Amino acid sequence: MDCIFCKIVHDEIPSDIVYQDDDFFAFRDINPQAPVHVLIITKKHIPSVNDLADKDSGLMGKMILVAQKIAAKEKVSVSGYRLAINTGPDGTQIVPHIHLHLLGGHRLIDQLG
Ligand code: AMP
Question: What is the average per-residue pLDDT within 78-85?
Fold first, then answer.
């Protein structure tokens, strides 16, 4: 599988690991856009939100709860943070393996697009 994030999950590419469990792997973004910038990825290779099926609803719900735990660990729960999943070209998705950006640690710009 020629997927950079699958390689990170399998420790073929090093990463600054923040969290992992049976379903998820989280690590610091190599090009952080905020003081806290963590990527939460599914261990299973799912290319994008467009590829999610009904059976993935529980998994994606858990992904938000993982983000909540990491936000607490990174001490941004109270100050706040943004969760974003980029999808496709207009969504500026670069890596075709579903990932949730957790951004925080300073006041984010008010603009979403
Ligand atoms: P996206 O534009 O949503 O596909 O975001 C992909 C993110 O992955 C970008 O923020 C990149 O900086 C990040 N990224 C790419 N390669 C790595 C890597 N090897 N380790 C950590 N983050 C990475």
Answer: 98
Q: Which of 74, 86, 80 is nearest to 112 (CA)?
A: 86
Pair type for strands 81-84 and 24-28: unpaired
- pTM for the full predicted model: 0.97
82's enclosing H/E stretch is strand 81-84
Q: From the candidates 37, 97, 99, 101, which is the catalytic residue?
A: 99
- Residue 103 DSSP code: E
From the CB of 42, is ligand 1 less than 6 Å away?
A: no
Residue 105 corresponds to which tokens in the numbers above?
Answer: 């640690």
Q: Is the CB of 30 under 6 A from ligand 1?
A: yes
C-alpha pair distances (Å), 67 with each of 13, 59, 89, 102? 22, 12, 24, 7
Identify the band that residue 2 occupies on the pLDDT scale cut at 50, 70 and 90: very high
Please, which pLDDT band fits residue 1 given cuts at 50, 70 and 90?
A: confident
Task: Determine whether 99 is an active site residue.
Answer: yes
